[in-house]
Amino acid sequence: MSPFITESDLSLTEEQFIQVSNAIYNHCGINLHDGKKTLVRARLAKRLRQSDFSNVSEYIDFALSAEGNKEFHSLVDSISTNLTSFFREKVHFDYLKNNFLPQLLSSGKNSIRVWSAGCSSGEEPYTLAITLLETCGDYSGCDIKILATDVSREILDRARHGTYEKKKVAPLNPQQRQQYLVPNVIEGHKVYQVKNNLRNLIRFNYLNLMEQWPFRGPFDVIFCRNVMIYFDKPTQEKLINRFYDCLAPGGLLCIGHSESLTGINHKYRYVLPATYLKP
Questions:
Q1: Tens of pLDDT along 24-58?
Q2: Which residues contact 88 (CB under 8 A, 6 or more apart)?
Q3: First to last CA, the chain
Q4: Could you tell me if 244 and 255 are in contact, meaning their C-beta atoms sit under 8 angstroms apart?
Q5: Which pTM was predicted?
Q6: Residue at 3 is within a domain
Q7: Which residues of 234-254 are buried (b: 16+ CB within 10 A; e: fewer)?
Q8: For an engineered disulfide with 224, which of 69, 99, 117, 239 has Cβ 3.0 to 4.6 Å away?
Q9: Strands 202-206, 219-224: pairing kind
Q10: Residue 117: in which H helix or E strand, if any?
Q11: Which among 54, 79, 104 is the end of a domain?
Q12: Same domain, 109 and 227
């Protein structure tokens, strides 16, 4: 960054905020209402400091141009929050292990298809893989496939790599760490790397939920948790019903506990908070 950039160079006008907000909304459905102006300004300032542009206006003009497509995606990555953890909102995994999966498997089904939509840095799909392996262990020949998608290519690279600091894997018990992770030391820090017995179950792909999906399912389970908080109600309703069409009959949808289907027209059957079944 140039040492001559001042606070005025980092200022964001209302018109510029609307311009950026509209571009991001049209791209991936993230709804940046007025309360997010401070967040957008901070993320723009961070991107500006990492570039050769002298002010926010120049940066926005470039990022929203055809030439700046790569930078625009980096801006979207910086604005979307990638907060996740192993066994986050554990009640969903408990329901999978104790209720949904045993019923599914006892019906004679020997293939399970799961979609982690908005998978972030990978903790969610890896937790799903652990849950499935632990639950399906008594059913020989069970075929498990997990699709994990995100709109951020950068975060997908981290997910594929599957390397986590010691504190990140704390929710896993010692037996799980031994069975599914390999300890390593990188730059003096102890880390854990995901073993192939989890990796081989998961396919990580880029996907913008607002665009056409290159698959139809059907999935037995869809996790889309703490993603819809960025969307307005019309976008949420459209997305929820697209998920419905991709679920197999009796399929499970889990959303974030900070999210709700209240006020959304849908056909799901409520099971538990943030937990729904397709009849």
A1: 888 887 888 777 788 888 888 788 777 777 778 88
A2: 123, 124, 127, 225
A3: 56
A4: no
A5: 0.84
A6: no
A7: ebbbebbeebbebbeeebbbb
A8: 117
A9: unpaired
A10: strand 111-117
A11: 79
A12: yes
